[in-house]
């Protein structure tokens, strides 16, 4: 599986949003600033309180898709997310490679964010299967992830959680 294209790599923005601490008032702006390469140049990150709340809700919707345990639930929740998207795709080669962006470049930051994550997440679900999304198995983590491994064997959000769990399992075996 190849996530090199924007179409699928946009799912990484969705996963980041679902896992981000979006505490008011500055959490969402900090998130946007840390991910500014996803937004058209000149996009303002000054959000109203309503927009900030909507961005946080979008993160919760992504999480709801990732934790759903049946295809029917994934589709229901994915379509809730897609209903917030305002796609107006355009082709660009701004980074030297021809690819599509999903939101119009003059859209407000929230519209660009919602549209990009909804389209990126749904691309992965329809192309690679809803089982590719999951929740980290490490104790006390709870981050969601997209499984890009060849054999769909991923269980952790990060290498940190994977090795932490390996160590914990080893210690548990030593005790018994
Ligand atoms: Zn681009
Ligand atoms: Zn984790």
User: Radius of gyration in whole Å, from Cα?
Assistant: 17 Å
Average of pLDDT? 90
What share of residues is helical? 40-55%
Distance between the termini: 40 Å
Task: Estimate the global geometry from the Cα principal axes.
Answer: globular
Uncertain stretches? 1-7
Sheet with most strands: strand arrangement: 1-2
The biggest sheet amounts to:
2 strands, antiparallel
Strand and helix order: HHHHEEHEEH
CATH fourth-tier homologous superfamily: Jann2411-like domain
Count of individual beta strands: 4
| CATH architectural designation | Orthogonal Bundle
- Output the structural class: mainly alpha
**How many domains?**
1
Fold-level CATH name: Jann2411-like fold
CATH class wording = Mainly Alpha
